[in-house]
Write a structure and sequence with these properties.
alpha/beta; globular; single chain
């Protein structure tokens, strides 16, 4: 009976993962068509007061200085920038020493109590704000001078903007930049054209102040606070629009370790919201698609998880290998179509790191393992840190290969050894 259950799980997980990959390929094809969007009347909206809100913690002081310099050059009035720091007093003093001049329309303040994670800092700034429209950016965000002028023309309750990686240097950054372009086209531009649910992006997002107040602000202690807000907005019937020609320039992770920590955080936050995101299902077809989107970091590694469990426990399960390899067919076909259409500029290491990070992060989020927030570095790191979780998984698979060999399960042992070697030499 247990064997039959896992045989079914192999095909279910293979189908779910493959369908999501094929759906993204379809979105990518749709995104090739132009997205026509009207911005509205400039004169009518030119006096709209806008507040830009940035939450910072453990950021390099030069990053904050460059942020202030960039945002001080915007050719729009009236606007204000509120930067809320959750840094230690020592780090905050370092920032203040480097920032030689703070414009009159800027507020740079350290929170007296560091609680509620990033969402807590955003709520703190929200309570200080009085702008009709609120724009949320990350510390590494850089924008063009007419950024707010373009935003002031929008007549939406909430809007997400295009993220673009600036100055990619390392191989990981270049791959990330290419992937980011695909994501913005397939999962934002195309989904906007199809009228699907667009979720808030905390790195490039604007919302009317009264709307944010109406839904209760940001949910504190949530790891993926932007995804949580996006779900809540959808459940309250508030449409987030994606605006493709308003660009926020950001940074990419420098190393595989940086990439691993970032993906794991996203996956953890997604799993943390699994039960809540199920409420989207009541919104019909669009809600079902929105649920799938919100849980994509669990869908990517779903088949891999079931596959590894099956071959690791083959000495107990004795699953027919015909079922095992047949379940691989949809995965190979969907990935083949995806690669043919997208032509990803990838190497095996970044792909493996992404899938393992999503697997580990999602499991930890589902189990509510204590989470430690790691800020993605904004400066090059000479020495790559070892990703301990991947090494541990490699050792576990090697042990399971040995156990299977004791029961003469040669094929499963060879498969496990292959996976183990790939992870250990990464």
């Amino acid at each position: 009976m247990i064997r039959e259950i896992f045989e079914i799980l192999l095909f279910i997980s293979s189908s779910i993962t493959s369908l999501w990959i094929l759906l993204q390929a379809f979105y990518y094809k749709v995104s090739n068509e132009n997205l026509v969007q009207g911005l509205g009347n400039d004169r009518k909206n030119s006096n709209k007061k806008i507040d830009i809100i940035v939450a910072i913690k453990d950021e390099n002081e030069r990053t904050i200085k460059e942020l202030i310099d960039n945002l001080s050059e915007l050719n729009y009035r009236p606007y204000r920038v509120i930067i809320i720091s959750d840094d230690s007093l020592k780090n905050f003093e370092k920032i203040m020493k480097v920032v030689d001049r703070i414009p009159e329309n800027f507020v740079l303040i350290r929170r007296p109590e560091n609680r509620g994670r990033k969402a807590g800092a955003l709520n703190f700034a929200f309570n200080l704000s009085d702008g009709e429209l609120l724009v949320f950016l990350d510390a590494e965000a850089r924008v063009e001078k007419n950024f707010l002028r373009k935003i002031s023309k929008l007549n939406y309750d909430a809007a997400a903007f295009r993220l673009k990686v600036r100055d990619p240097v390392t191989p990981v950054q270049k791959i990330y930049s290419h992937t980011n372009e695909f994501v913005m086209n397939a999962l934002f531009k195309a989904r906007e054209k199809l009228g699907l649910i667009i979720f808030a992006n905390g790195s490039a997002f604007a919302i009317r102040r009264d709307i944010l107040r109406k839904v209760g602000g940001w949910k504190e202690n949530s790891v993926a606070e932007d995804l949580e807000l996006g779900i809540r907005l959808a459940l309250n019937g508030i449409r987030v629009k994606y605006v493709d020609d308003i660009i926020v320039y950001t940074l990419a992770p420098y190393t595989l370790t940086d990439l691993y920590n970032q993906i794991k955080r996203w996956a953890y936050g997604s799993a943390e919201l699994l039960a809540y995101s199920m409420r989207l299902l009541k919104l019909g077809v669009k809600g079902i698609e929105g649920f799938i989107y919100s849980q994509q970091w669990g869908i990517y590694p779903l088949y891999l998880l079931v596959f590894l469990i099956v071959i690791s426990l083959q000495f107990i399960l004795n699953v027919n290998y015909l079922y095992v390899f047949s379940s691989l067919v949809p995965i190979l076909v969907s990935n083949g179509i995806y690669i043919t259409l997208i032509k990803p500029k990838d190497d095996y290491r970044s792909g493996i790191v992404t899938i393992i990070a999503s697997l580990i992060g999602y499991i930890q989020g589902a189990l509510k393992v204590k989470f430690k927030w790691k800020v993605t570095p904004k400066n090059p790191i000479i020495k790559e840190e070892e990703i301990l979780s991947i090494r541990i998984l490699g050792v576990i698979l090697a042990i399971m290969a040995y156990v299977n060999s004791l029961f003469n399960n040669t094929l499963s042992s060879l498969l496990l050894i292959l996976f183990s070697i790939i992870l250990l030499v990464l």
